[in-house]
Amino acid sequence: MLIISSNAFLKSIKLIFLLYFSGFFILQYAKLRMLSFYYDMVDKYIPRELYQYCEMDTDSAYFCIHGESLLDVIKPEMKDKYLHGLNGFCNDQEVEADTEYHWFPRTCCTKHAKYDKRTPGK
């Protein structure tokens, strides 16, 4: 017969709850970021009649646009702001993604384009 002390049992229960809540938080945060992308970027910059969301998951979004490129379907009054987010930050300060300008990698120069397209953790 296996006897487990109450202290060891409580530690294992705490670990299980920690793992459970960590996974729950990560998935909910991923959903929040995807919804933020939809409402703060796509819905704000592209007229609704020019795009259709096909599928969205916690780490990807597939949508169709009615144009040759994303730049073709950006609202005329938002084009300057969109282009400023791509080209307007050509300096050596570290730029983090935010909900205002930095949804896509900068295209100002090859140095920043490579830096922004890097794989996290490498």
What does this structure look like?
There is one protein chain. The protein is mainly alpha-helical and 122 residues long. It has a two-stranded antiparallel ribbon. The model has no long low-confidence stretch (mean pLDDT 80). It has a domain at 33-116. Helix content is 49%, strand content 9%. The chain is elongated.
Quaternary arrangement of the chains shown? Answer: single chain
Mean model confidence by pLDDT? 80
The neighbouring-strand order within the major sheet is: 1-2
- Outline the low-pLDDT stretches: none
Strand content: 5-15%
The first-to-last residue Cα distance is: 48 Å
State the helix count: 4
Helix content: 40-55%
Q: Give the number of DSSP strands.
A: 2
Structural class: mainly alpha
Radius of gyration: 21 Å
List the secondary-structure elements in sequence, H or E. HEEHHH
The description of the largest β-sheet is: 2 strands, antiparallel
Shape: elongated
Please describe the topology of this protein:
Elements: H1 6-45, E1 51-56, E2 61-65, H2 70-73, H3 79-87, H4 110-116
Antiparallel strand pairs: 1-2
